[in-house]
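Project outcomes to date are best conveyed with an example. Our students and postdoctoral researchers have been running inverse folding experiments weekly, and each run begins with a structure described purely in C-alpha cells. The record below, which covers 396 residues, was selected by the lab manager from last quarter's runs and is presented without edits.
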C-alpha cells in the first residue's frame, strides 16, 4: 500500500473488475498457521491454533469457488505461515479441493512454502501429485546456534534431510531461503552458510538481510537495548559477499534479494514485481486487479466466519490514484535487475515520470545509482545498496 492511497471502499465488487475474457493469471493462497511464531516475523501467521485449520481450509475452498470463474492461473503460490505445518490429510483436502475448483490447464509454476522438518514422504507425494513443481524452503541458516537465535525450531540436519526428501519424491525444483547478517553471525559464518546451501544445488536462492519490522519481538528487544541495532556496513559486507559467491556459482541476481540459475527465476514473484494482476485467497491475503486493491481480514477465525456467513472477507478495498499507482510501479519494478519502462508506466497511469522527475533521474544517473536505456531505468549494483533512497527520490 502506498502512502497516498486511501482505504475507502471502492464502489464495485472486486470480481466485477475482471473481464470474462481476461481471467487473472496469478493466484496466491495463504495458510497462516505455524508451529511457532518467529521473533523477526511480521507476516500474518499464528501459532497454537491448529484446531482451526479444518474449518479454515473449507473457508479457503469456498473463497476459491467464488473466484473460480475469474481465474485461469499461470502461477500459484501457497504461502504462510507454514503451509506444510498441518497434517497430510488436511493438505490433501486443500490441494484436491483447489484442483476440483480452479482451471489449472494453463499452470506453469506451482510453488509451496515449507519449513525444514515439516515435510515427509506422504506430504511430498500429495504435493507432486497435485502438480506442485517448485518448493520454497525456509532454511535461513545452516548454523544451529544461529537458528536458535532466530527462534527457528528446525536444525541444519533437518534442512538437509528436507532437500533429500524433495529429491527422492521427484520435486522438479526447489528454492532455499537464507538470512544474512543475523545476530552473532560473522562473515566466516555467512560464507559457511552459502557453501552448505550451494552443496544442495538448488535452482534458486533467496538471500535476505535480517530486518527489524514493527510489532516483532526482535524490534522490541532492540528498542529495549537487549539486541544490537542493525549495522548498515556489516549488512552490506554480508550482502556483497553473498552476491559475489552466488554469481561465481552461476546464479544471476535478477532481483535485489533473489538469485537463480538461468531460467529458474520465480515466475510468481516476477508477476508481483512487474505489477501484474493477482488474486489472494485466505486471511490477510492482498489482491491487485485492474487498478483495484484489497486485503482480507487478518484473523483466521474472523475470515472463516465471514466466509461461512456469505460476507466478503475483505478488511478494506481501494482504488489508488494515478500517482500512487505510479509509485507502486517504481517501488516494485526497481527491485528487478531489468528495471522499469517509464513509457509503459505512463501508458497505464497517465503519469510521466521522465518529465516530473527529470532532474532527479539525471542526478541519480550521474551518481552511478541508476542506468537508463531509452525509457527504461534500472538500478546499478551501487543503486541496489541504497534502493529505498533511490525509490523515495523518484516517488511522486
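After processing, the design step wrote out the following sequence:
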Amino acid at each position: 500500500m502506498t502512502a497516498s492511497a486511501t482505504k475507502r471502499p471502492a464502489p464495485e465488487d472486486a470480481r466485477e473488475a475482471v473481464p470474462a475474457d481476461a481471467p487473472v493469471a496469478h493466484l496466491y493462497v495463504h495458510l497462516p498457521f505455524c508451529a511457532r511464531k518467529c521473533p523477526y516475523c511480521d507476516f500474518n501467521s499464528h501459532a497454537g491454533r491448529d484446531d482451526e485449520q479444518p474449518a479454515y481450509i473449507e473457508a479457503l475452498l469456498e473463497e476459491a469457488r467464488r473466484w473460480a470463474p475469474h481465474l485461469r492461473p499461470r502461477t500459484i503460490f501457497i504461502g504462510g505461515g507454514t503451509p506444510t505445518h498441518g497434517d497430510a490429510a488436511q493438505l490433501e483436502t486443500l490441494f484436491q479441493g483447489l484442483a476440483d475448483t480452479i482451471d489449472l490447464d494453463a499452470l506453469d509454476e506451482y510453488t509451496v512454502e515449507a519449513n525444514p522438518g515439516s515435510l515427509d514422504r506422504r506430504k511430498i507425494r500429495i504435493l507432486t501429485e497435485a502438480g506442485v513443481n517448485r518448493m520454497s524452503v525456509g532454511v535461513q541458516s545452516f548454523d544451529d546456534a544461529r537458528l536458535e537465535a532466530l527462534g527457528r525450531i528446525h536444525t541444519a540436519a533437518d534442512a538437509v534431510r528436507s532437500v533429500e526428501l524433495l529429491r527422492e519424491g521427484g520435486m522438479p525444483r526447489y528454492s532455499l531461503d537464507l538470512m544474512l547478517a543475523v545476530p552473532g553471525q560473522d562473515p566466516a559464518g555467512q560464507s559457511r552458510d552459502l557453501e552448505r546451501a550451494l552443496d544442495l544445488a538448488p535452482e534458486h536462492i533467496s538471500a535476505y538481510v535480517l530486518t527489524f519490522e514493527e510489532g516483532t519481538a526482535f524490534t522490541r528487544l532492540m528498542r529495549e537495548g537487549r539486541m544490537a541495532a542493525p549495522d548498515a556496513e556489516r549488512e552490506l559486507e554480508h550482502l556483497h559477499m553473498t552476491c559475489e559467491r552466488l554469481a561465481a556459482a552461476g546464479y544471476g541476481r535478477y532481483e535485489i534479494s533473489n538469485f537463480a540459475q538461468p531460467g529458474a527465476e520465480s515466475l510468481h514473484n516476477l508477476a508481483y514485481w512487474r505489477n501484474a494482476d493477482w488474486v489472494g485467497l485466505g486471511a490477510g491475503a492482498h489482491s491487485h486487479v485492474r487498478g483495484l486493491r484489497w486485503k482480507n481480514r487478518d484473523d483466521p477465525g474472523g475470515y472463516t466466519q465471514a466466509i461461512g456467513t456469505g460476507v466478503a472477507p475483505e478488511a478494506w478495498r481501494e482504488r489508488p490514484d494515478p500517482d500512487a499507482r505510479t509509485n507502486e510501479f517504481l517501488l516494485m519494478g526497481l527491485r528487478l535487475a531489468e528495471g522499469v519502462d517509464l513509457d509503459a508506466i505512463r501508458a497505464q497511469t497517465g503519469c510521466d515520470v521522465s518529465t516530473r522527475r527529470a532532474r532527479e533521474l539525471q542526478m541519480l544517473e550521474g551518481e552511478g545509482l541508476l542506468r537508463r536505456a531509452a525509457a527504461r531505468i534500472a538500478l546499478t549494483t551501487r543503486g541496489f545498496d541504497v534502493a529505498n533512497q533511490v525509490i523515495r527520490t523518484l516517488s511522486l
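The chain has 16 helices and 17 strands. The two ends are 14 Å apart (CA to CA). The training component of this project remains on track.
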